Amino acid sequence: MKQTDEKQLSYGAMVTGLIMNAGGVYGIWYQGDFWGQLGGCIRGNLNVDEVYLVLGLPAGVTVAGALLVSWAVLGSPVARKWSAKRRNAVFGCYAVALVVTITCAAVLGSHHLWVVERQ
To answer: Quick one: DSSP state of residue 98?
Structure first.
C-alpha cells in the first residue's frame, strides 16, 4: 500500500469516526425526546431489548467513532510526522470537546424530557 493510500484510509477513518460521533451525540440528545413520547415510563412501555438499544446504541456508536478518530490522530500516517506533544495535545482537545458535547447533549435532552413531562 502506498503512503497516499494509507493517508486516504486514515482520513476516511477520521471522517467516519466524526460522523459516528455526531450520530451518537444526536442519539444521546434524542433520548430526551424519546422518553418524553413514552411518558417517561421505561418498564411499562419497553421490553429489555428495547431498553438496551435506547441506552446502548448511542453510547456504542459514539465510542466506536471516538476509537476511529483516536486511531487516526494517534497512530495513522496522517500524524506520523507530528511530535508526541502535538499528537497528545490534539487528542486531548478532541477528547475534551467530545466529553463536553456529550454532556451538553445529555443536559439538553433531559431538559427537553422535563418540558414534555410537565405538559
So the answer is: H
> What average pLDDT does the segment 18-44 reach?
71
What pLDDT does 38 receive? 58
Maximum separation of any 2 CA atoms in the chain, in Å: 60
Q: Which residue has the cell 460521533?
A: 21
> Global pTM?
0.68
Q: The domain containing residue 70 runs over which residues?
A: 3-118
DSSP string, 25-83: HHHHHHHHHHHHHTTT-HHHH--HHHHHHHHHHHHHHHHHHHHHHHHHHHTSGGGTTS-
For residue 58, give the C-alpha cell: 448511542
Q: Which residues of 98-114 are buried (b: 16+ CB within 10 A; e: fewer)?
A: beebbeebbeebeebbe
What is the C-alpha to C-alpha distance for residues 67 and 23, in angstroms, rounded to an integer? 14
Contact criterion met (CB below 8 Å) for 25 and 59: no
Q: How many domains does the chain have?
A: 1
